[in-house]
Structure formats: C-alpha cells, structure tokens
Amino acid sequence: MAFAGLVLGVSGLANAGILAYDFEFQLDGETYLKGSFTAEDLNFDHFFRDEELISLSFWNDTLALHNYRFNPTVDDNFNFDIMANAFLLGGNSFGDEGQRWNRRGGPGLGFGAGSRCATISINAMDQGCGATPATTLTQIVSVDSVPEPSTLAIFALGLMGFASRRFKQQS
Questions:
Q1: Residue 63 to residues 85, 99, 108: CA-CA distances in angstroms?
Q2: How many domains does the chain have?
C-alpha cells in the first residue's frame, strides 16, 4: 500500500510546476496574433485561468504593437486547456470561457475570441471581426520544457527510505 502511494505521489510531482508556452493564432494561413505566456496550474484541474497566469505577452507584427500585461482585475479573461494545449474560444464577456485581453480596458493592442468572432483592438477600438466565428482561428501552441525533478531519482530516494527503514527494524 505504501509503495502504491509512493508511485502515485511521484507521478503527481513530476507533472507539477510552472509551464511556459509560445502561441500563434492564424487566419487563412496568415499570422493573426503571436505571443507567449507562463502559468501554473494551482488547483490541478488541467486548466489555466486568470488567477494562475504569471505572465502574458502578445503582439501583431502587421500593426507593430507589442507587449501587453494581462490584468485580471479589469475585464480580462484567460482560459487555456492544458490537456488539449488549446485556448478556449467560447464567450468573451467578463467571466466567460473565452479570451479577452485588453479589449476595453487600456491603450495598445487587445485581443478577444468569443462565440461570435475573434477580433484585435487598438486603444480599445475593435478592428473588426477577423475570424467569424472565433473557432475559424487556427491555434499553434508549443510548450517550453521546464526542468522538473527526475521521476526515477525521486522513486530511488523512496526505495532507499524503505530499505533503511527495514534495516532499522531488523537491528
């Protein structure tokens, strides 16, 4: 029983931690938006939400606008499915399951992907629905490997602990 607990505990530890992603949204084969983010799945539900986001930066090369800092206290939504490596593209009203990054709250570049369309905004002014519906956006997401403790090393330490405990009991 203890051995099964050790194996399950080790496998859980190997998946914990901070993950960094690069992403690109494409529309009709052309780059629509690029960016990167770092997040940590604090509640282990396999989703990144606003409160788990550490950093987000995104840009559009055509519009020459870069670097927006995500602010979950304004009107932003960030929803990412870790298992599918995909952004959720549902509604984009505050609190919905879509994306809403700096769309109404501040200067510079904004992005929204909701149930009706995906749009880029500049200084809180929408530039039209580039993708109708938002699911016509193609997502390219890659995760950067983050060094984690070796599962085998942790497992070996556990076995050494069991062995030392057994030898203590025999003495």
A1: 27, 20, 10
A2: 1
89 belongs to a structural domain:
yes
pLDDT the model gives residue 82? 93
Beta bridge partners of 4: none
Using 50 as the pLDDT threshold, list the residues of the chain that sit under it.
1-15
Closest CA to 75 of 51, 53, 100: 100
Please check whether residue 6 lies inside any domain of the structure.
no
Long-range contacts of the stretch 132-137 (C-beta < 8 A, 24+): 133/89, 134/89, 134/92, 134/98, 135/89, 136/27, 137/25, 137/26, 137/27, 137/32, 137/89, 137/113
Q: What crossing angle do the helices spanning 2-15 and 151-170 adopt, rounded to 10°?
A: 150
